[in-house]
Specification:
Length: about 325
Amino acid sequence: MKTIGVLTSGGDAPGMNAAIRAVVRTAIYNKVRVLGIKRGFNGLIRGEIEEMDVASVGEIIHRGGTILHTARCEEFKTEEGLKKAYNIIKIFGIDGIIVIGGDGSFRGARDLSKFGVPVVGIPGTIDNDIACTDFTIGFDTAVNTVLDALNKIRDTVTSHERVNIIEVMGRNAGDIALYAGLSGGAEDIIVPEIPFNVDNVCRILIEGKNRGKVSYILIVAEGTKNSFQLAKEVEEKTGLEVRVTVLGHIQRGGSPTAADRILASRMGAHAVKLLLSGKSNRVVAIRGSQIVDYDIDEALSMKKEFDHEMYELAKILSI
Ligand code: ADP
């Protein structure tokens, strides 16, 4: 293994830069050349590739986003697109590719591996929706961003004795909602993994009001119910004043937390070590405190488990 390519793909996540830095520096430390591929699989198909050195990843560990940029690439899902990418890989003499992204990106990497290109995936997404790993890079930062917003919203909600519905990201996963909801003491957490009914939510709010509660935060994960529709129904059924805050892309940005920087550094170094030891078609993961890896097909076939115990705890603690 003389030359490794690295790219970021799909939705960006804070800590991707720390992962790139770890890949580049671990490789160079081991006397392996690193090529940075810009704009995900798009840049691979188009040969948007530059050599990276130790200095090119300086001053980025604390920065959100990704210096390699990221993109979605429909062409890469076609045989023709894959062939173009494979040709570029041969032209540039790339011996293995590290893909930092979500499960869509790992599917792309898996397709590329069928051409005999060794690939390793690093889970980078704020959604924490990758089944083989306890945590993905960017999740902790996103949860802290939501928590910061929740604390601020709590101030105004309490002053006005209102309800605020905070809509958070997560695609089809409720982890951001669950972790931010538990740590922020949300009155209720609505996630795609748990069926919910509006009357139950209203009952929680009315019971709280009867006990003298003056502020109510409901966290709703995107992919559940339209927050504005929910607000309307809750307002009609409880008589409480309801406001909606959709946090949106603010959750994707910001300086990564220490936890994300450490996770990214460990995962990036592990990915390089896998390629150098001849292991390929793997996805890096963290289980407990251990960095581990899985076969990419196995990783893609695993089903993400929702933490029901934590969800129940959040319910109990918000009574
Ligand atoms: P994420 O990696 O964050 O899940 P996407 O699902 O958008 O993001 O995937 C990123 C890119 O990975 C896509 O634009 C596409 O190039 C590639 N990709 C996604 N799904 C597949 C698939 N089923 N087969 C091949 N490539 C895919």
